[in-house]
Design a protein that fits this description.
Layout lengths: L4 H9 L4 H9 L6 E2 H8 L3 H13 L3 E6 L2 E6 L2 H14 L8 H12 L1 E3 L2 E3 H13 L3 E2 L5 E2 L1 H11 L14 E4 L6 E4 H13 L3 E3 L6 E3 L1 H11 L18
Antiparallel strand pairs: 1-3, 2-3, 4-5, 6-7, 8-9, 10-11
Helix pairs in contact: 2-3, 3-4
Length: 243
């Protein structure tokens, strides 16, 4: 396939608008949002948001479905999430925040958050490093599961998790935009996050992508990988109040 400069420029222009980027970043939590919720997130009027969202759907960045009066939108897939995360890494340091609430929210996101459907932030990088140190992942020549890693995931979530998928690899590294180190993505990165939520070891935050380790999870995760959990937020315990 031959791409023209014009087609690449049109696609890039979709993410050259602050409001469109704000809505895409909100959707990095992996959930479907209504058009009205995304409008409020971006701080723009509903009709303006609707126009932007239609353009993002037409460009293939978002997918939509309708239920009654509401239009629900989500990122079109893991590849789009990866593109947005890569842009965040390339953008460099975030603009300094001024209010205490904004500072705390930024700290929570840096400590532990979702990157579409897998873990990111300090917690996500800790998992990646602990799995590599424990012989579950090979990182020397590309990223791959070891035999021990396959057994570990089978014990965690059953044998079906190792079935190959045409849509995404089992494991993939994703460069974390706050840590500047890799966290685990791919199909098994998503499985890992779902297992942690289902077991109530981590709890999704309210209103943003931040997640919190529960008191039960703090003990279970350290035992699961035989590694001590890092302090996740400004030196506070990982089991601090829900975001």
């Amino acid at each position: 396939m031959i791409l023209s400069p014009e087609s690449v420029a049109r696609f890039a222009a979709m993410l050259a608008d602050r409001s469109r980027v704000a809505m895409c970043l909100a959707l990095m939590d992996g959930r479907a949002w209504t058009a009205g919720e995304l409008a409020r997130q971006a701080g723009i009027a509903a009709p303006t948001a609707s126009e932007h969202l239609t353009q993002l759907v037409q460009a293939g960045l978002l997918a939509q479905e309708r239920q009654g009066r509401h239009r629900y939108l989500r990122l079109a897939g893991p590849d789009v999430a990866r593109l947005i995360e890569d842009l965040a890494v390339a953008a460099g340091q975030p603009v300094p925040t001024r209010s205490l609430r904004a500072v705390r929210a930024a700290e929570d996101l840096a400590a532990a958050r979702t990157c579409y459907d897998h873990l990111a932030g300090t917690l996500g990088v800790w998992f990646f490093d602990a799995m590599a140190a424990g012989g579950l992942l090979i990182t020397d020549d590309g990223l791959a599961l070891t035999a021990a890693g396959r057994s570990w995931f089978t014990d965690l979530a059953g044998p079906d998790v190792l079935r190959p998928s045409r849509s995404r690899p089992l494991v993939r590294s994703c460069l974390d935009w706050t840590e500047r180190k890799p966290h685990l993505a791919g199909a098994l990165g998503a499985v890992l996050y779902r297992q942690l939520v289902d077991r109530s070891w981590v709890r999704p935050g309210r209103g943003n992508r931040a997640v919190r380790v529960t008191p039960e999870g703090e003990l279970a995760l350290a035992e699961l990988l035989g590694a001590e959990l890092p302090g996740l937020s400004a030196g506070e315990p990982t089991r601090s109040a829900t975001a």
